[in-house]
Amino acid sequence: MTAVDLNTAPDALNNDQQLPFSQLNTGAGTTILFIHGAFVDRGDWDLVTLHLPDYHILLPDLPGHGEANTIKPFSTPLAAKLLTTTIRRHANNGKAHVVGLSLGAYVALRLAVDYPDVVDELFISGIKVLPPMSRFAPHGLWLEQRIENALPRSFVRWLMDGTDIRPADLSRSTVALCKEVLDTITFADTDSIWPSPWPARTLIVAAGKAGIVPSSDHPADAVKLREIGRQLNCETVAYTHPQMRHPWNRQDPKLFADTARAWFEHDAMPEGFTELRVR
């Protein structure tokens, strides 16, 4: 791994509101932008990026998260707008492959729809569209974060097949942020909220492992997104992996990195993946 820079970008969070970020392998050619999930930060990618030393990597914090916690409120339009600035200013040739996990997948889609000129190819995982919830749901999610943090990490790893779940920063996991996150992912009541078609060639992955902890994704949502994406790019595909859980970047980071590499280099998918079919 070369030219590693793990410091916050010097122009982050200035008057025109830019996201703090880290970058790795600044001497490499092609850029990959990684977008993290809810209640974590850019450090959630540390186990994955070790396996991609030949890519220039951008690791931003989303609004309301990490060092961007003062940029509020979180929304996918705001996140996409700010990420566009990051890509245009810091990605090689002003364009990047984009990887988004969980909440980051929703942001990645918004980025690909609204700013297609900065997105080369897309790899998203963890789309789990939820039905509308009660007004008390953010309080339930707030409480859930605290219960999860109280559990011993060894017990969490046992429940999640060794997945290295990082504790959430509870000082930043507010009820307001919980509501903003839920507002992003609870829209199954109407087709009008699904994204418009986007032109980027896209890999959509739905994790397939549930068990004691309900940590699988929604394959039907992945298929629906695939059909939307194929309206502008017939190479968009959807896959599942029966042994991977929702946060599989922490469960099998090498497989996650190998999957990104295979997709962006137009190679065959790693062993274990199955393409999702329309039922």
TrEMBL record:
Domain AB hydrolase-1 span(s) in chain numbering: 32-258
Pfam families membership: Abhydrolase_6
Biological process per Gene Ontology, one example term: acylglycerol catabolic process
GO cellular component: membrane
Cross-referenced SUPFAM superfamilies: alpha/beta-Hydrolases
MF annotations from Gene Ontology: monoacylglycerol lipase activity
Protein name: AB hydrolase-1 domain-containing protein
